From TrEMBL:
Protein known as: Nuclear transport factor 2 family protein
InterPro entries the UniProt entry points to: NTF2-like_dom_sf, SnoaL-like
Top-level taxon of the source organism: Bacteria
Ranges where the SnoaL-like domain occurs: 7-124
Amino acid sequence: MTREDYERYAAAFNARDYDMVFDFYAENPRLAFFGIEITTRQQLKDFYGFMHQYVKETVEVERFAASDELAAVEGVIRIEGIKDLTREILDANGMEQFYPIAQGEVQSMRQYIHYHLQDGKITSVGCALVP
């Protein structure tokens, strides 16, 4: 995966083109972050389809490094509430680990994201927040 490949991936994510996003993944990938695990195209669509009803989420890449087996990204994830996402809504959808966000509220989080690669496709993703 090159920086240009990743920029296309991030652009697809920012555009909410979940099918194009998933096309960057190998068969049977494992995305694990903040207690969520996604292994299928439909799970990715379901999770982000739900979340993006309430928030506009964008990825700003600041640093990128890659080898044949790993792509590492440091960037800022910006979350903007477009509709109130309450504690009750999160809990009812099994997302107790996430924080509510009100319409108009903005949260920015620095993240380190590691993508394990095989034959240029993403096989797994892990990320960590930087305090």
